């Protein structure tokens, strides 16, 4: 076997798998027995490979190769030299930007589960991210000689990118071929709070899942989708044996609970103490009333704090609340509740909150209903309010005196007639409230008197007005509300998100933000989905500079701005001298890249300003971060400096035309800056071009 064949034989298994992506290729000087040899460092998702040839007529050959998680030690005390050691090999080489490259190498090692000591007074290890668990999953499959289907990677990656709380195995339908590696990679993951299992006999391999349930630590909710069956008895034992889990909640989706499987359901909810039970279209219709009776007789039902029921239109909510007096919070979502039937049970002294999303209220004199002073959460969203009942409920909640704490009120997306709205704004919305700490008025009509009420309520900390700022209501916000907010001392969190085209602000939002700039009380502002435009983004920047108490800002979605304005925004905030959790505008960056072809280097420059703004302009000499999105920290970055690399990097022998590395795609993180060629094809091209 000649040397060319030797190189290719090394990568044959990889080319067959086709899933190891090239992260970068850099030229290095390899120190061997006191000599320096020109070499090439090839970094892939899972491997470190050094190729070299000692003379012009020699073929490229692999001289050092190891998997990233085999690294034991990385040393760099200057920005030009790195020493790396594994249990079987060691290598020292000279390279530009050694601190950044060394940090990248350490990150590639630790995100695959490796334990590598980092010896450098200039580098701080990167903080782990949720994406590392996905790398572990892919690496586990790689070592077994298989690659995951792209849809599976995309589904998990999308959940991680969006910080979704749920790992939904029922949705992704992971086959048994990949399931062991997936569960092993995410068993200790702290990025997901909920795990969903398909509970049917046909699609679920409980032999693989039971060990996961026995050892999972950070999941707080376990959910069973589809009809429950006898195999779930294994789950009972597994849950009882796990003493380290943070599990608090249990949910059932389309479980077809009936008289036959009710005993198994009872065992599941009594095998450990749960505080929250969620039932989503989980009970057979003809069994609902009997279920309520049998469930209320279980000791475990008396230990629950919260019951959530969704998509159950025939639910007799009055019977449920009557039979379960120990529950602290009831939530009914899309159950088409006759809300009047629950009012008699609001006097229950154990009740702390009532949540109804969807239903009808027809009563007129709701201001006379008895409400326990223990209740501090009133949520009546997407309700059809008949007979001026919205006014009655508003008055009753405002007159409610809680036993402790203050009240959260959600009357969003109220459906009522124009006469009711007129009466509400003319007569009932004038006085301020002393007991309300949070109001969600999203999707409702707006009038100056309501905004005045909010601005004058002394204990109101959070105000949510999603979809309320439109072209029709802009005058209320710019004139009345903004003027009052200038001197408001109570509202610390303001949420005014744009939901769709018909519920977004117009160009006046820049004037609203300009007026808001003198406010010194706001701590959090959410403008997601609002078309700020260049003027609005500039006004937001001035607001953040003038009010340095703001600690959190969200504004992604429909910024409708340019790269230069976005760069100026972050650059301006980098001198704010106060830290702030500023949302990175993923959607806007993706749009700018797709429509305007913004380069990866421009995005990286923007990220540096953004990171500086996060810390309030404070920085230190430690290198603590590599570009995760995109993962391009090992691309060729040589320039015409006066270092020993000058002759080396300009040598025709080493001027290799690599395959094109595509621009990062934010929707596919693991493919960022990755070659569309396989490793084998890349090495073939390198050998051809180096002759």
UniProtKB/TrEMBL annotation:
Alphabetized UniProt keyword annotations: Repeat
Keyword flag Repeat: yes
InterPro entries in UniProt: LRR-containing_regulator, LRR_dom_sf
Name the record gives this protein: Leucine Rich Repeat family protein
Originating organism: Trichomonas vaginalis (strain ATCC PRA-98 / G3)
